[in-house]
Write a structure and sequence with these properties.
The structure is a single chain. The chain is of the alpha/beta class and 248 residues long. It has 2 domains: 208 residues, 3-Layer(aba) Sandwich (Aspartate Aminotransferase, domain 2); 37 residues, no CATH class. It has 11 helices and 9 strands. The chain is globular, with a radius of gyration of 20 Å. Bound molecules: pyridoxal-5'-phosphate. Pyridoxal-5'-phosphate binds next to helix 2 and strand 7.
């Protein structure tokens, strides 16, 4: 049942005082922006205006959700001062997005999440972090991949992330963070049309309560075991007349 899935999520992420589940991460972001920013500005770095698969363009989603974009910095460099200059009476929230589908390398700069969180706390504007991948805790095999617990610990007020991807659950969007903000998000009128269905919630609960997931098993598979599997596959291909060998 729905409360059970939310209880499982709260137990899985003790750093989040409030939790909510919607249909997918894009829905979670749209709902968060509608509820916390309304028609005010969403402050975001020009280096984080991402497009992901299927033509999903984050800036277009923010505008469709009713907010106004306040872009700061440049493609490769955004400083804490850029954010500070942009935050004002018209700021609805500051958004930090994990750019999972590309990397900007070379002459780059962006403030740490904790510095950005401290700045937002000073200005009393919410910091929302789209962490994307569905990792709830640090994953040793993916050191560079952000996780919800770390972002919350660094002071992000609301983290949005996927229930699928690296979490390995059903397609859904997880909202984690400050209880008062999650409450405002849950009570927004758009919450109803974006909510997750019962089957999704049941699958999410099962994923969260299970000690392991296929994704985690795959990430932690031992090299010897992968080699044996690859040898088997190569053998099948060779028997079918296709040249194949397993390599590291
Ligand atoms: C995958 C992803 C999304 C979209 O999530 P869906 O659950 O597919 O809607 C949004 N932001 C980031 C950073 C992502 O990685």
């Amino acid at each position: 049942s729905p409360p059970a899935a939310l209880a499982a999520l709260a137990a899985a992420v003790p750093a989040a005082a409030g939790v909510h589940v919607v249909n997918n991460n894009a829905a979670g972001l749209a709902l968060t922006v509608a509820a916390l920013a309304g028609r005010r500005e969403v402050v975001i770095s020009r280096g984080e205006l991402v497009e992901t698969t299927d033509g999903f363009r984050l800036p277009e989603l923010l505008v469709a959700a009713g907010a106004r974009m306040r872009e700061v910095g440049t493609t490769n460099r955004t400083t804490l001062g850029d954010y500070a200059d942009a935050i004002g009476p018209d700021t609805g929230l500051v958004l930090r997005v994990h750019t999972a589908s590309y990397q900007v390398i070379g002459f780059t700069d962006s403030p740490t999440i904790s510095d950005l969180a401290a700045l937002c706390a000073d200005f009393e504007v919410p910091l929302v972090g789209d962490c994307g991948s569905g990792l709830l805790h640090p994953e040793p095999t993916l050191a560079a991949e952000p996780d919800a617990t770390s972002w919350l610990g660094w002071g992000v007020d609301v983290v949005t992330t996927s229930g699928d991807k690296l979490l390995g659950g059903p397609q859904c969007g997880l909202l984690l963070g400050r209880a008062d903000l999650i409450d405002r998000i849950r009570r927004h009128p758009m919450s109803r049309p974006l909510r997750a269905g019962k089957l999704t919630l049941a699958a999410l609960e099962a994923t969260l309560r299970h000690p392991d997931s296929p994704v985690r098993q795959a990430l932690r598979a031992r090299p010897e075991r992968l080699a044996a599997r690859a040898e088997t596959l190569a053998g099948w291909l060779r028997r079918a007349g296709i040249a194949a060998s397993a390599v590291a």
